[in-house]
Amino acid sequence: MALALLFTVQFELAQSLPKHLLPVEVDEKYGFIDSSGKLVIPADLDSVWGFSEGLASVWQGGQAGYIDESGRFAIRPQFQFASGFSEGLAGVELDDKWGFVDRSGTLVIQPRYRDAQAFSEGLAAVHADTGLWGFVDKTGAEIIPPQFTMAWSFSENLAAVYHDKKCGFIDPKGTVIVPFRFNECGGMKDGIGIVRVHKLWGFIKASGEFLISPRYEEAELFFEGLAAVKQKGKWGFIATDGQFIIPPQFDYGRIEPTMTHFSEGLAGVTKDGKFGYIDKTGAFVIAPQYLKGGPFQSGIAQVCVAVCGYIDLQGKTIWPVRGTRPI
Question: Quick one: pLDDT at residue 10?
């Protein structure tokens, strides 16, 4: 489940409001187009990530820094790795250690951790040299000392953490709200979390009480009132009462993101080896014709066949342009 969520996050389009800039590759260099398909930041960068909070992490000359929406460097390349901004700070790697910079490039939390996740609800999960995870605030103070074998970001005042091969949920003070009694936890959204008990997945309320008892082979979080679940080898979508709204019939490649959650009324699914988009009745509104794709954001989704491109909600191609391809 954690792997599936990771691929989902990686594949979702980075947004830049109001321009909504999208990364593309041109002749083995990288730049950004706008939502009309016009190249607005020249493709002269070695590698890029999408925009977050008005800045994009980019690589040039083997080092990472940040550009603004005009393409100018806001923070010069100087890091081994630079993640996206969240709540005004971004995780960066220097000399194999992780810390955080602000938008001016100032190190507000010195690099001293093995790994770090993005700030969420004022806290960031960090991996200490002890091998354990804890949480720091924006000053670098360890609000929840490292004590967990794994930890995920806070969402709705709860974070999934692992202890002695079991997972549960804590609040921002480190108090255990949902006891360590699950084999795996997949996060919390809109007051509903997903957990695994033995081999089956179910859904819990924020209190830890089961909303839907474990009965699915795999499961994803609820988006727009529906959650993707797997039963008898196929994926479908359920409502919060556990009943199938769209019966199991789709395939899901974990390495290649061939299914998405509902976003802007549509979900990407794969059937008979082809990827397209369905509405909440299960009807295809963008015919299955691609290899894989991502969720819609601001009316745009990335889809791939031999090369990747961008489409709008009607399935109209925005990109690629001849001789180029997106990331």
Answer: 32
Instruction: With residue 83 as reference, give the H or E element that holds it.
Output: strand 81-86
The label of the residue with tokens 């507000």 reads 108
Strand partners, 201: 196, 216
CA separation, residue 33 to residues 16, 20, 26, 54, 263 (Å): 11, 9, 11, 15, 22
Rounded CA separation 117/135 (Å): 9
Q: What is the pLDDT of residues 245-273, one digit of tens each?
A: 999 999 997 667 799 999 999 999 999 99
121-178 pLDDT per residue, tens: 999 999 999 999 999 999 999 999 999 999 999 999 999 999 999 999 999 999 999 9
Q: Give the integer Cα–Cα distance in Å for 39 and 326.
A: 11
**8, 254 contact by CB (below 8 A):** no
Task: Centre a 10 Å sphere on the Cβ of residue 121 and count the other Cβ atoms it contains.
Answer: 14
d(CA 254, CA 270): 12
d(CA 267, CA 21): 22
Interval 14-27: pLDDT, tens: 333 335 799 988 88
CA dist 298 and 312 (Å) reads 9
Residues 241, 227 contacting (CB under 8 angstroms): no
pLDDT (average), residues 290-316? 91
Helix (H, G, I), strand (E, B), or coil: what is residue 3? helix
Q: How far apart are CA 219 and CA 161, in angstroms?
A: 19
